[in-house]
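Reading a protein record of the kind used here takes only a little practice. The integers have meaning only within a learned vocabulary of local backbone shapes. With that in mind, consider the following protein and its fold in token form:
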Amino acid sequence: MGKVRIGIDVGGTFTDAVIIDNDTFELLAKRKIPTTHDRGVAHGVVRIITLLMEENGIAPEDVAFIAHGTTQATNALLEGDVASVGVIGMAEGIDAVSARKETDIGDIELAYGKYLQSAAVFVDTKNITETAVNYALDELLKKGAQVIVASGAFSVDDPSKELMVMKEASRRGLYCTGGHEISQLYGLRMRTRTAVVNASLIPKMMETANMTERAVRDTRIESNLMIMRCDGGVMSIDEVRKRPILTMLSGLAAGVAGALMYEKVTDGIFFEAGGTSVDISVIKNGKVMIKYAQVGGHKTYLQSLDVRTLGLAGGSMIRIKDGVIVDVGPRSAHIAGMEYECFTQAEDFSGAAAGLVSPRTGDPREYAAIKAQNGKDYALTLAGAANLLGYVPEGDYARGSDERNRAAWGAFGEYLGCGGEAAARRVIDLMAKKLSALVEGLIKEYELNRNMVTLVGGGGSGSVVVAPLAENMGIKHTMAKNAPYISTIGVALAMVREQMERTVLNPAEADIKKIRADIIERIVRSGANESTVDVSIEVDAQKNILRAIAVGATELRRKNPGAAELADEQLAEISAQIIGADKSAVSLLHKTGRWSLYKGVVEKKLLGGLIKRKTKSLAMLDREGVVRLCKENAACLKFIKAQQDKAFNAFLDENTTYSDANATIPKVFMFYKEKMLDLTGMQTASQLYSVLNVETEALLPEEELIAVAYK
């Protein structure tokens, strides 16, 4: 056996692990064991790795990559299992008045009756001394602080005062973090709040990180253990010790990260459906959408996946009022401690009767169940409805027993007086109504091309949710390969990822070069091999934010899951389908590197066919046939690097809209070699040129680029 990748995902109930071929990304083995809460999570990690390696004849030196996804940080916040934090706020002069208030965060409510407790003292930094810092530390310890945060006004520009506090805290054996380590953005209160949440997790995560690292070492695997982040990447365990907040919500990120490695999705909605809830996230231009996370209703500077969670999934129970089905979910068979009607192997439901139950103490007696001949109640579920109506294919994880399920729903239909299939259709329609409203909102919010949107199913109940929803909405869908293990696969396949943001008004080329160098330094520290690092620069002119995103591998190779290069004829067929044109109306415009740009013409009939209007669209595909961009009425230009100043500048000027007030540049994407450069966040030509110059300075004069611009 060659080199392999191991992914481990520790959940509340089960710990999953997978082995992936390092070259082909083929799933070689998978394992599931109960999570070992009583003996410590690390014990279960060692056990599942050892079992997988022994069963598949894998030697420690065969493991090229090992990563761990954990809900530890999320659970700690939900359960209030966090350390109390002491904040040393700092500023001088006139800034001290506001800084004193902005660094006093107070207690943050994490859940009902659960609080993250924080206390604050303030130090004027005009003549700060080690004595003053230690006095402040003494005051915070008296107030019960277990971890320290140093947060100074303008520390993103000059972190020396924060570093001084961190040095003194460390000398006294205290955990401490600085606001500048967590975010490079201005906004003292939000930066302090983010640092406080991070600090509160450090003791718990240090304990977990140390135990897990020792556990992996016990297996004699030499590859460094990586940990899943909330934005879909991984980082080294040393970085987890400093910034544990980045592991918060990482479980939600792993599933879509895995799906993106397998599925050719440009614009899509990903559903990871379990038994109780479904997590929904957005894919646009092949990337997952990110936003600032909230803790206790408060915004932070933590960037995480934009995930919407709904209490609707395979185990969702059916609610009845006055003999009519009125809802499906949020109560599930799992929460009720009941078996699904479609999965039981023990009961024969012939002659069984349907009725209503109260799943948990305090619940209304309005949930449908089937009572077997032995008197035991089984839940009627969304999974049962989907199985009955044929949405769950043979061999799918959610496929149930047709005979028992049909008998159960027959009894339920008789109870309602409408027939089993009619009852199941009502349940499916209610589910689709709930989810379609949310999906339509996401399509609108992220301005997705509805013709390109694909619904992607993951998790054990993916087919239960996605297939009927896609039918209802008239949108294409697919199930992610190895859907039940998609989160664990996402952990195994994840890239190292880092993001850095700075508050910069009208960033110049020097600012862009500086943040690019800094993000490369940080991602290498997080475990990436520098030669594999790819950096994207974004400018948010409305918020004066300069953002750098770096992605890299832990070893010398690129991500390409064994996909074959398609012929021009195949790429043309895909382009025609996406554009909505006849294949005869589609032509290849340009090729360079991994990219092929196609033009298509669509004739639209208006006013009942009295008026015909032709629209032109451009579609950019990579060599595997993934559509990375599709736009109507877009312009394009192919040029060589040596012609950039002349040819591209003239192209940009030609597509800029001029008015008396200002000049509005188009949205621009640049394609060259293996790179897709997103320049749509640029507000001025000078910003765009600065980023483009930095990103393309290593290109040779004769190397080709393709620009696509639209308004």
Observations:
- The chain has six domains: 4-76+206-259, 81-196, 262-494, 495-552, 563-632, 634-711.
- The domain at 262-494 is CATH 3.30.420 (Nucleotidyltransferase; domain 5).
- DSSP finds 19 helices and 38 strands in the chain.
